[in-house]
């Protein structure tokens, strides 16, 4: 029997269920992919903010990854919140020799503004994992922090920063446009071959918790199903747009509510 497509998420847990491991597994399921996971940190959070973070030991993170790789080899891996430099190093070592596609989402700050990655871990991320990323998915503030620059102010600066991240080792960079202004949200896929602009109408909702996690895991899910990089990004972006459009139907929490991962399934 041919194994069902599967994907592995390496990320932190969100007790509110809207982002992190929970969002990733929901996304995988919504897109028909079996999800496995390695938890890097446990956060106490809800739609209003993060109240506590406790990291998992690097050895335990590595053990989770090894257990999955030896029995349920994923068609793609999504990497999210890594919290500390020791966890970054453990993940990099655990993935040595694994040849499948990797989507790296450089999670640094929660939607509420709470920090999720130390400065030392940012440096380790660039040095140890950026070169492992088949697709890097930073928003504009994250790209700027990785490069030590000010956030991009226009399309030209966003594309230039994307190319600078290619020079640091990423094979492709999706510069997400959610933090930019304007009636459209434009994500730019930057590769050595050029730039592809992917545009969706900007939606008026405060319920966008987990958008970054969900987009990167949707890309990983599509890669696991066999899509090429650009097609995986196109499918993932279109799916996320529908998930954001359905977010207000959920009515979850009193802050930034989650996107509707199961908009195509729930009545």
Q: In short, what is this structure?
A:
With 267 residues, the chain is of the alpha/beta class. It contains eight helices and nine strands.
**Which CATH top level class fits?**
Alpha Beta
Give the CATH architecture.
3-Layer(aba) Sandwich
The CATH homologous superfamily is termed Ribokinase
Radius of gyration: 17 Å
What is the makeup of the main sheet?
6 strands, mixed
Can you give the mean pLDDT?
A: 93
Shape: globular
CATH third-level topology: UDP-N-acetylmuramoyl-L-alanine:D-glutamate ligase
Count of individual beta strands? 9
What is the number of helical segments per DSSP (H or I, 4+ residues)?
Answer: 8
Total domain modules: 1
Question: What spatial order of strands do you see in the largest sheet?
Answer: 3-2-1-4-5-6
Helix proportion range: 25-40%
For this entry, what is the oligomeric state of its chains?
single chain
């Amino acid at each position: 029997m041919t194994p069902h497509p599967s994907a592995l998420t390496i990320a932190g847990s969100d007790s509110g269920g809207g982002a992190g491991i929970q969002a990733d597994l929901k996304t995988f399921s919504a897109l028909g992919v079996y999800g496995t996971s390695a938890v890097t940190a446990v956060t106490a959070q809800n739609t209003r903010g993060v109240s506590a973070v406790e990291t998992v030991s690097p050895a335990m993170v590595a053990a989770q990854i090894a257990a999955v790789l030896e029995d349920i080899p994923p068609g793609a891996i999504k990497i999210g919140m890594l919290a500390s430099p020791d966890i970054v190093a453990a993940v990099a070592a655990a993935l040595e020799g694994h040849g499948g596609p990797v989507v790296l989402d450089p999670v640094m700050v929660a939607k509420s503004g709470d920090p999720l990655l130390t400065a030392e871990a940012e440096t380790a991320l660039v040095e140890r994992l950026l070169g492992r990323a088949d697709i890097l998915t930073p928003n504009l503030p994250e790209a700027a922090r990785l490069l030590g620059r000010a956030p991009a102010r226009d399309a030209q600066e966003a594309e230039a920063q994307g190319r600078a991240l290619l020079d640091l080792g990423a094979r492709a960079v999706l510069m997400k446009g959610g933090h930019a202004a304007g009636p459209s949200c434009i994500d730019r896929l930057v590769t050595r071959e050029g730039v592809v602009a992917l545009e969706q109408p900007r939606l008026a909702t405060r319920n966008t918790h987990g958008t970054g996690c969900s987009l990167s895991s949707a890309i990983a899910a599509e890669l696991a199903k066999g899509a090429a990089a650009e097609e995986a990004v196109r499918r993932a972006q279109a799916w996320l747009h529908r998930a954001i459009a359905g977010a207000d139907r959920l009515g979850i929490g009193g802050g930034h509510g989650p996107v509707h991962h199961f908009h195509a399934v729930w009545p």
